Each structure stands twice: as structure tokens, then as C-alpha cells.
Amino acid sequence: MNTYQVAVLAGDGIGPEVMHEALRVLSAVAQKYGFSVKCVEKLVGGAGIDACGKALPADTLEACEASDAILFGSVGGPKWESLPPDERPERGALLPLRAYFGLYANLRPGVCLPELTASSPLKDSLIAGGFDILCVRELTGGMYFGEPKFYGERDGELVGLDTMIYHRHEVERIGHLAFRAARSRSCRLCSVDKANVLSASVLWRSVMTELAAQYPDVQLSHMYVDNAAMQLVRNPGQFDVIVTENTFGDILTDEMAMICGSLGMLPSASLCTRNGGKTFGLYEPSGGSAPDIAGQGIANPIAQILSMGMMLRYSLGQPRAADAVDKAVRAVIAAGFRTRDLATGAPGERLIGTASMGDAVLDALT
Ligand code: NAD
After folding, report:
1. Residue 116 pLDDT
2. Which of 75, 87, 304, 349 is 20 to 30 Å from the Cα of 7, by its Cα?
3. Counting runs of H as helices and runs of E as strands, what totals does the chain give?
């Protein structure tokens, strides 16, 4: 029997509540598909700061290092907002984890199920039948990390400077990942850049075009980022897989989250390659710790459950189990179960809390 180890970092706010449901589903799906998972639970974020003064305690990092994947909840909240920026839960935990493992690829599915189109701010006529997009964002390069960076006075005037830089190998590795992702879906890949203005985008576009020769079954198109932002709200259904650089991806994935309806439905994965070619990753919901609803038992656990499903697919090599998790979630939504963030008051909806949503997914699985 295959056995895996997962570092479970539930974090703060709704993190522990939704993680509890995801772990119940993980245990059931492992049993059903004949593998076992050892979950090593560790503190992170505000919980780590409270316990030992560090958002990413040393033994938490050690557990991540020794595991096949990290299942992450969310961190942060008002209690820690007065700390210096670098010591706050988000900066003190997530960014170091990304940097330590070199998690260069961020996969964010933007799925609006046909039953949930009413939760999207877009008109029904634009998204009838829902949509299903996967955004592949480069996560460790571009303007957020480019040097030089500067903020201060020059020649008697205040100046801010950032550098958008990409190296060929950075574009190549995210490109390969995106082409492979497109291959596993409907073989359409849209590369988003600003090649009419930015040199980093000229490089981006030329490398993507070159890679396309290695994936003749994938149809590659290019789109400028300003147009992509418009097309996402005009006709999101036209997209299948989008690949883009760090800054553009940051903005477009938030836009995508908005048009999907609820943050409570959206998982994400941040990936790298380790230990002889294995895909290692940090899997987490797209939303934050939602302090406004924490402790009330009303948070939607689906984003956490789907993040766990992505972990099964990409890091644990269990695609059938991952498909089963996705299918169970779709069945639960089709049956009308809704946490508060999804409820519209339409006939047939059944308003339930966090634990009951976990129960419903478990029932659908088995
Ligand atoms: P948020 O994503 O926590 O919440 C935004 C809104 O979405 C809130 O109304 C919240 O109730 C709702 N929401 C989010 N997830 C939900 C779920 N699963 N079910 C139902 N509703 C859900 O963003 P915020 O309010 O801007 O930030 C709150 C805290 O989370 C801050 O401290 C922020 O820094 C932190 N944060 C952490 C992460 C992370 O851990 N990766 C990401 C974003 C924000």
C-alpha cells in the first residue's frame, strides 16, 4: 500500500474549522482508493506566534521538509495586525515557505458551477452553464522579486523603482507546466502578456511560441493583459488554461475569484519539483482566514477540500481519488447544499454549516 506523509498547517481563523473537514474527506478517500496518509499537524501563522513567537516555527518547517506535500489552511487576523509587517502571519509564514521550497508555479482553478451562477456578480446571460478556467501563474519571478528595487529620494525627489525581469529558464519551466496542464484538459492555452510594451513580455511570448512546437496537440493563443482583464468579465467561458507572469497573475486570479462567486469554493496549489523529479506543493484555499465568520461553524470547507483534492492529483499521484473528490463536491452542490456564502434563497437550496457540508461530501464520496 502506498503511504504518504502530509504536513498539515491549519493556521488561524476558519483554517482549523475547514481543515478538519478536509482531513475527514482525505481519510475516507484514502481508505476507498487503498492508500494511507500520515498527517503531521503543526502550528503556523498567528497560532505559531502565540505558541513560540514565530509565524513559521522551526519544527513546522522540518515537518514540511520531511513530507510529500503541505496542506495549508489560512493565516492572519486582527490579533496580529499591529506586529511589524515582516513578523505578521502572512509575510512571516507563507512567503518564507514559498521562498524556501522555490514554489514557482501557482495553479488557481476558477470554476463557476452551473448551479452557482447566481452567486457570480456577472449577468446570467454571460455565464449560463458556468465556466471552468485554470490559471497558471509564475510565482517566484517578475517584478515582485526583480532587482534593483528602490524607494527613497533621488535628486531631491521621492522615487519608487521596481524591476520586471524574466530569465529564459523561468519562462520555459512555467511554460512546460502550463502546456502539460492544457493537455490534461481541452488542449487550449492562452498566454497573457504585455508584449506590445514590456521587454520581459517580448521574451515571455517568444519562449511560449517556441515551446508550442513541442506540444503540437495544444492550441496556443496570446492575449495582452488589459484585454484579458476585459475578456474575463465579458466572456469567461472562452478560456480554458491561462498562463501568465507573476504580477499579471496576481491581478487576474483575484478577478477570476470574484467572478466565480465565492472564495469558499476556490482551491489553489503552489508547486515545485523536488527529490528526483517529484511534484511538491503547498495546497491552500484562495481565501484568507475570514475572521468575520471564524468560530461560528458557517465557513465553507469546499475550497479546503478541493485543495486537498489538488494535492492528491499533483503531489500524491492519486488522480482517481482526486477525481472522486471533485465529483463528490459537484454532487453536493447539485443536490442543493449551500453554506451561507453560496446561498441565494432560491427554491431547492438547503442551508447548512461547515460540519454538515463535510458530512455531505463524505456521503457523496461513499
Ligand atoms: P478573506 O479571504 O479572509 O475574507 C474575505 C471575505 O470572504 C470575508 O467576508 C470572508 O468571510 C469570506 N470568505 C473567505 N473564505 C470563506 C469561506 N471558506 N467560507 C465563507 N466565506 C469565506 O480576506 P480578508 O478579510 O481580506 O483577510 C482576513 C485575514 O486573512 C487577514 O489577516 C489577511 O491578511 C489574511 N489572509 C490570509 C491569506 C492566506 O492565509 N493565504 C490570504 C488572504 C488573506
Report:
1. 93
2. 87
3. 13, 14
Could you tell me the residue range of the domain that residue 325 belongs to?
1-108+262-366
Q: Is 194 one of the catalytic residues? A: yes
Clarify whether residues 128 and 159 are in a common domain: yes
299 CB near ligand 1 (under 6 Å): yes
pLDDT at 1: 86
Q: How many CB atoms lie within 10 A of CB 130?
A: 17
Q: Probe ligand 1: pick from 260, 265, 284, 289, max atoms within 8 Å of CB?
A: 289
Determine, yes or no, domain membership for 114.
no
Q: Are residues 237 and 294 in the same domain?
A: no
Dihedral of CA 252/257/263/268: which sign? Answer: negative
Assign 351 a pLDDT band (cuts: 50, 70, 90). Answer: very high
Does one domain contain both 138 and 240? yes
**Is residue 114 reached through a cis peptide bond, with omega within 30 degrees of 0 on the bond before it?**
no
Q: What is the pTM of this model?
A: 0.94
- Give yes or no: 314 in active site: no
Q: pLDDT (tens digit, 9 = 90+) per residue, 233-283?
A: 999 999 999 999 999 999 999 999 999 988 899 999 999 999 788 999 999
Ligand 1 atom nearest to 93, measured from its CA: 40
Q: Is 226 a catalytic residue?
A: yes
CA of 13 to the centre of ligand 1 (A): 9
From 68, 166, 194, 283, active-site residue: 194
Write out 269-300 in H/E/C secondary structure: EEEEEECCCEEEEEEEECCCCCCCCCCCCCCC
Nearest CA to ligand 1 atom 43: 288
First to last CA, the chain: 20
Distance from the alpha carbon of residue 57 to the mean position of ligand 1, in angstroms: 23
Element (H, E) at 181: helix 168-183
